[in-house]
Amino acid sequence: MVGGAWPYANGPLHIGHLTALLPGDAIARYWRMRGADVCYISGSDCHGTPITARAFREGVAPVELTAHYHSRFTKTLERYGFSFDRFGSTSNPEHIAFASDFHRSLASSEYVEDRDAPQAFCPRCAVPLVGRMTVGTCSRCGSTSRGDQCSSCGALQDPATMRRAVCARCGSPVSVGTSRQRFLLLGKLAPRLREFLDSRAWPSNAVAPTREYLQNPGDLAMSRSIEWGIPMPGLEDKTIYMWCEDMLGYLSQSLALDPAGFDELWRSPESYHYLVFGIDNLLFHSVVFPAMLMPGGWHLPDQLVCSEFLTLGGRRIATSDNWALWADDIAAVCSPDLLRWYLLAHGTLGGTADFTVGGFLDAVDSGLPGMVNRLHLEDRIIPDTYLEETFTQVGDAIAEGRPDRALRLIEDFIFQNPTAHALANLAVLLRPFCPETADRLGAQLGVGNEKWEPVGVPSGEANGPIFDMPDARALHVLEARATSKEPGPVVPFNANTLLPSGSRR
């Protein structure tokens, strides 16, 4: 199972989303080429305060906002060649039913407890405050933080216990009362979670923050005093905390996709599960999700593929701040495969990176795309043992969740072997990363590229450039437009034309 993080359906997809999601597509495509039975799952996250905050600004219902962006997501992801077996949403009936049943069962666990807890409240707006409905000071690192999670240190936040917390809508200081909530006892689960962490060979950027957090984790409220969401069984005036139901989408959509194979996928120790996401989602995937799965004996995550932040103009890309290069805008002036290559080869698996159009164009020209477009082919055959070793090394890098390293190996292979035989094998090696380009090249050369195995000397020739080059001027215009403004609320869409009629409120 390959699970890709579920983007919030509160705005278009941007290059930061693509950076975090693309490694999962490369992994899924690779294992399919190896003949594995792959279940590649993701979807739109349609609940929580990121959704209600945007819907409030636009004056539309959350259900209409999320329906619009879910539809846009599916088109954008198809445009970029994502090969999901199922891309669902947290508002579809099968997910709601599964999440409700899951939490109904989880409630009887020794690791779950209902109790009265502090509840933030805005006296001016006269509403309970949860998640991003508050801003304040992080209780761990002291940085300015939203009420759900600190963007500086990643610590989970509680609006009722944050320092200097104010209502995000009106700026009034919060008042604190009490409310009945359901808690996941992370403190009680910590020894099991630490043992689980020690059993996994996760990347260092996932292990270090997780280990630090598990030194003294607080219990997590799995319910919220907010109307928009899935009702919490047994606490019918509460809804399930968005993070405690959206990750269940990996299960609910697996079940919807293949009911007969569900138990084998989620109960068998023979299964292998990847979770692929951005660093700001780390603790939810490395701590909260396993903690929810443990009481029921579900299969726990085997490998985490965790991308760091991609910045634009030195600032973190964020939909809610309208600070982004949008995926559809780039696809209109640049081959999606070319951006796939760049974000996989020069993305953020190895650390935070800043995206600039100049850097992108330089990398394209000096890297694999420019190299293969300029190849002067030599007439020689590559030894079978060398090819087999190359395929093994590239495949191992993909399986370990490092497509960036795999692409460096491919680039070295082509640089050292500028031959028609190498080009034929490039049609296979490139397929997990740039599927459209690889398939076109394979068709021109007359070689099959569906299986992860070396191929012989091609019967055909490549016609024209292998990679389509971008419109550099148009990309610079997009970059200038995106970075010429201060971050602020996302530009509103025209709800009267993009949403169903009568949706304005």
- Radius of gyration, taken over Cα atoms and rounded to an integer in Å: 24 Å
CATH class value of the largest domain: Alpha Beta
CATH architecture of the largest domain: 3-Layer(aba) Sandwich
Strand adjacency order, main sheet: 3-2-1-14-15
| Average of pLDDT | 92
Explain what you see.
The chain is of the alpha/beta class. The chain has three domains: 2-103 and 245-328, 3-Layer(aba) Sandwich (Rossmann fold); 108-224, Methionyl-trna Synthetase, domain 2, CATH 2.170.220; 334-445, Isoleucyl-tRNA Synthetase, Domain 1, CATH 1.10.730. 42% of the residues lie in helices and 15% in strands. It has helices at 15-33, 49-58, 62-79, 93-106, 186-198, 204-213, 243-246, 249-257, 262-267, 282-293, 327-331, 336-345, 357-366, 368-373, 384-399, 403-416, 420-429, 435-445, 472-483, 495-498, and strands at residues 2-4, 40-44, 86-89, 112-122, 127-128, 134-137, 144-146, 163-167, 175-184, 220-221, 223-224, 231-232, 235-240, 274-278, 303-307, 310-312, 315-316, 353-355. The strands form five sheets. Strands 3-2-1-14-15 form a five-stranded parallel sheet, sandwiched between helices. A hairpin with a 6-residue loop joins strand 6 (134-137) and strand 7. The longest helix is centred in the first third of the chain and has 19 residues, at 15-33. The chain is globular, with a radius of gyration of 24 Å.
Key features of this structure:
505 residues; alpha/beta; Rossmann fold; Methionyl-trna Synthetase, domain 2; Isoleucyl-tRNA Synthetase, Domain 1; 3 domains; 20 helices; 18 strands; disordered C terminus
